[in-house]
Amino acid sequence: EVQLVESGGGLVKPGGSLRLSCAASGFTFSSYSMNWVRQAPGQGLEWVSSISSSSSYIYYADSVKGRFTISRDNAKNSLYLQMNSLRAEDTAVYYCAREDTALVRGTFWYWGQGTLVTVSS
Amino acid sequence: QSVLTQPPSASGTPGQRVTISCSGSNSNIGSNYVYWYQQLPGTAPKLLIYKNNQRPSGVPDRFSGSKSGTSASLAISGLRSEDEADYYCATWDDSLSGVVFGGGTKLTVL
What we know:
The complex is a heterodimer of chains A (121) and B (110). Chain A is mainly β.
């Protein structure tokens, strides 16, 4: 069974940093592209970033480009999102989501339960 | 303002058929597959339709998707109370080099 478990969320001050993790199990992690998708309270879904299976291809939404960094460790079956220079508008539940291919297609076949990031002073 | 346009709400009575539209442009829907996601209250989203009109295993055939030009639609037939959820369309945008979502449609079963 595919399982994605996010962690690392919490309360952080504007301008601060946070690192999210996503632990994957139940499939061969190194064979699939991975994504981060977020949802602000009471709002819709917003794609954040994608990374291909071998980390060769990486994409970011304009809203986070230059501030967030996606990475993965295939040996540890883990996906990460380093978030710097956080703003109030980054407050959201962050979901880790798996694709069905090694290449980035921007498709979200499996989702984690999400981790809440709150940016507030 | 979302790149893809969906109606904010839709409703129907049990047994009815409802459709949810998703409008985009040549750089997104017009040149890429459309995906639909269902988000039940308080839960993570779930893939409902992939590649315009394909259902993942386990998704009832009451759900169907279609695409024409720069628009797509999700149809739900034989509406049930458990279909009450938020529905999102999504696709890749070649101009933005990223995924774009619709703003979401809240479906109410009356």
